[in-house]
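Hi R.,

Here's the chain you asked about this morning:
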Amino acid sequence: MENVFDQVKTALNIQEVICRETSLAMKGKHLEECPFCGGHGCFSIQAENGRFKCFQCAEGGSVIDFLMKHLGIDEAGALQRGAAMAGITLDKPASAPRLTVVDKILQQAAEYYHQNIQNGARAYLIEKRGHRDDVLKKMMVGFSDGDLVNHLAKQKFSYDDMLKSGLVRMDAENGKTIRYYDFFSKNLVIFPHVCGKKIFHFSSKDPSGKKPPYQLPADFRHKQWFFYNQDALKYDGGILVEGENDLLSVLEAGFFNVFGLIGQISDVQIKRLERYCKTNTLYLWMDNDYDPEKPFAKGLGYVRKICQAIDTDNIKIIVYPDQVKDPDDFIQAIKDPKERKKTVDALIGASVDYITWEIGQAARMEDKAKIISHLEKFGIFQRITRQPEIWQPVYVDRIEALGFPRKAIEAKLETEHDLKQKLALYFEAVGNKGAADPIVISNMMFEFFKKEGKFYRTREDEVFLLYKNRTYSISNNLPFNALIMKTAKPSANPGAGEERLERSGEPGF
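And here is the predicted structure, written out as tokens:
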């Protein structure tokens, strides 16, 4: 269900709000000057995406972010101001949520674990891991002593209800109960996953490192649980990390818009991220580990899995030194607390899009054939062809810097054209080109040009296509026929271009 922040963002036209609040006018695609740094020709507003960005001072975000910065108010104040502009009545602050018996057990358990933090967890979390006490309190981080069952029994909770929570297990033999015991064994750091006023989930880590990290099984998690600290989904520019220690360190660096995967990424989490990215920018800050045998598993593999599933410009990837294990280690290595936020801010500012990131991954390979194979395997050439034409040379430059001739790269992009691919797959499916349905083919071509260009009709009932800054008359004429041949006809010999390049002495693909 859409939250109130999304409702306000959707209801407001960000361009109208910014122009009205600043008394500045648009000049082409940019505001006449940036209201924050005063720069000219650098403040872009994307009304269709509800976003603004200054390419000089790097301010950017949603309409809520603009109101916060421009008016010097907090997020709640910006929400109220935006809601008033949109004619949306905000609900009164919600009363305490109704808690089921299981909800109360989870709450009691979180408080019990947190009270036990003195018994070993502080030494691990503060002295060894370098976390701050105030953040541990905020996140209710705790420690298990193996005696939760007895504590809950003293609070008059039934064993049946304890079992329903997942925090308590039972041994039985011949249908008879032998004992009840804690799901989280003794001497584990416990992380309650708080959402609003409820506990949605628990995860754990063993300070000794002898036991692997584990969490409540899926059957016992709240059905609306997605991430650790998922309340941060209300913020634009969310930072997604993997583990609990990563998240604590990012919080300590001064960033509250952070949430964590906790374990392998699931399809449900990807769907929730896809929804988030429709209106917000997502920064991926994953661990630096990678398994080449499993390209979609572990840290860098998660980057790829997310970006392959969600094709959007609203995802940015934070890149940091290869020798650093994870965000937690990166931040903890910065001893001066004041420098932490500044350094992480710089990392975020230097974050890259997925195409650039994947080119960077390919650059680690010395063999050129492997580089091209890598880019082909993950569809990077296809993705480049889907980018606005003005951006494509930037990616061509980056691939060229890896030692490939520009002409070969451009030829490769031409063969990776979406329309050509779709038509080739269709012809392959029907087997015989003579059996191809011309209506199906024409619809595929129409949908492509509608997406990449613009059709319009004159008063004389003539139809024209505006495509790549050139106008074509839709009729049997040389320019239009040449366009169709260039964009739609699959190459009879895909390797011909490579052969020519090799014969000319240039390395081809």
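One quick note: Residues 101-115 form the longest helix (15 residues).

Cheers,
M.
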